[in-house]
Specification:
alpha/beta; 8 strands; Rossmann fold; KdsC_fam; 3-deoxy-D-manno-octulosonate 8-phosphate phosphatase (KDO 8-P phosphatase); 6-stranded parallel beta sheet; metal ion binding; 15% strand
Length: 179
């Protein structure tokens, strides 16, 4: 039974052309730090950023759909050359549909990484749903792939490497750094 599940997950990963990310709890550890002047801070993981850069270098697209609004996210998205992002989406289905139609993609060609209940409506639509190890149990139960890493601690990188390996692209990526 486990082998069939593994084969299904691998088959799903092979079809992916775009990844859509949640932010808090996925790209960050979910913490929001507040400074003395009321300014907000979030921590983004550099390995996740490198994973996104490698993913895009391989010719794939990245998008973000998040429930919160954040100037920090805008800055991070700009650094990572992610132009497709939607903020303030308490119901993420409309943003998902809009992105899917804009790029003429099918559900099975899209992966989504989410960590909380707000992510479930999109996770059950996509071809490859992933969750960080510390996602809420209802999300982990419905994910096709659950990372060993926590959100904001390399979970995005882990998912992207898995997909790239499933598509037999990872060795070529590594070799670009060795030559």
């Amino acid at each position: 039974m486990e082998e069939a599940r593994d084969a299904d997950v691998l088959g799903r990963a092979k079809k992916i052309k775009m990844i859509i990310l949640d932010v808090d709890g996925v790209l960050t550890d979910g913490g929001v730090h507040i400074g003395e002047e009321g300014e907000l801070f979030k921590t983004f993981n550099i390995k996740d950023g490198m994973g996104i850069a490698l993913w895009q270098r391989a010719g794939f697209r990245t998008a973000i759909i998040t429930g919160r609004r954040s100037k920090m996210l805008e800055k991070r998205a700009e650094e990572l050359h992610i132009t497709e992002f939607r903020q303030g989406c308490l119901d993420k289905r409309d943003a998902y549909k809009e992105i899917k139609e804009k790029y003429s993609l099918k559900d099975e060609e899209i992966a989504y990484i989410g960590d909380d209940l707000i992510d479930l409506p999109v996770m059950i639509q996509v071809g490859f749903a992933a969750a960080p190890a510390d996602a809420v149990s209802d999300v982990r139960e419905r994910a096709h792939f659950v990372t060993e890493a926590y959100g904001g601690r390399g979970a995005v990188r882990e998912v992207l490497e898995f997909i790239l390996k499933s598509q037999n692209l990872w060795k070529d990526i590594v070799n670009t750094f060795l030559s």
